[in-house]
Specification:
By secondary structure, the chain is of the alpha/beta class. It has a single domain, classed as Rossmann fold (3-Layer(aba) Sandwich). It contains 10 helices and 13 strands. The strands form 3 sheets. Strands 1-2-4-3-5-6-12-13 form an 8-stranded mixed β-sheet, sandwiched between helices.
């Protein structure tokens, strides 16, 4: 789906975002680690003209600048700055993985700004332990050519091929820094149950049956949050990429209620 790219400055740091257009209900979509706002293009297209989907490249991702830190409050302050920049008092907030956790934590701290919440395969609790993203530390950050950068990515090359960036000097780079991803993943681990239950807006949990939210935890998330709904798809963690039309239909039905 076509979109326009814009930028705002936060303390001298660029936060880039894409706007899929339309005059409908504003819906802000937050991606997960190693992704970007434009990854919601298929979902935005399937949602249709009733929604104006706006998706930032979260700090350290895509066309947004790297940040000094990747703790919980930093991500949430970026969302608040984006809403204020756009003059949006109240939005539907949707997020995948890291973005799902950011979404429900933002709703817990700023409930007056969120009319409804959609969490796509974002856990309420992630046990401490080794980060599953440690493999990215072996990735080259830049390379003289796109082909050399892809060669250095090994098995991950097909996944990342479409999101590589060309620098002004003709070299190529990843749309993230591997060290930032590992740091960010480590800082999202922990018990977030108080945040999951910390707002009372309508909430939808979308789970991939082969994703990262255990079935028992998903059931507990629904039980602990009155009125929350659960929709499952027989796919992996990247639910909205595998089932964009299904996810859009589930979101439309949820919001219509």
């Amino acid at each position: 789906m076509a979109h326009t790219r814009h930028e705002l400055r936060i303390d001298g740091r660029a936060l880039s975002y894409v706007d899929f257009g339309g005059d409908g209900t504003p819906l802000v979509a937050l991606h997960g680690h190693m992704s970007e706002g434009a990854s919601f293009a298929q979902v935005a297209g399937a949602l249709g003209d009733g929604y104006r989907v706006i998706a930032p490249d979260q700090r350290g991702h895509g066309d947004s600048d790297r940040a000094a830190e990747y703790g919980r409050e930093g991500y949430l302050s970026d969302v608040l700055a984006l809403l204020d920049h756009l003059g949006l008092e109240r939005v539907v907030l949707l997020g995948h993985s890291l973005g799902g956790i950011n979404a429900y934590q933002f709703a817990a701290r700023h409930p007056e700004r969120v009319s409804a919440l959609v969490d796509i395969d974002g856990c309420a609790e992630i046990p401490d332990g080794p980060t599953p993203l440690a493999f990215v530390l072996g990735f080259p950050v830049t390379a003289p050519t796109r082909e050399e950068l892809l060669a250095g990515l090994g098995p991950a090359a097909p996944v990342l091929a479409g999101v590589l960036r060309e620098n002004a000097d003709g070299t190529w780079r990843l749309p993230f820094h591997p060290r930032d991803m590992v740091d960010s993943e480590g800082l999202v681990h922990g018990d977030h149950w108080a945040d999951w239950t910390g707002s009372d807006c309508p909430a939808l949990l979308i789970r991939g049956t082969k994703g990262v939210v255990p079935q028992a935890q998903a059931a507990e998330m629904i039980a602990r949050r009155p009125g929350a709904r659960l929709v499952e798809f027989d796919t992996d963690h990247f639910v909205y990429a595998a089932e964009p039309a299904g996810v859009a239909a589930a979101v439309r039905e949820f919001l219509a209620r």
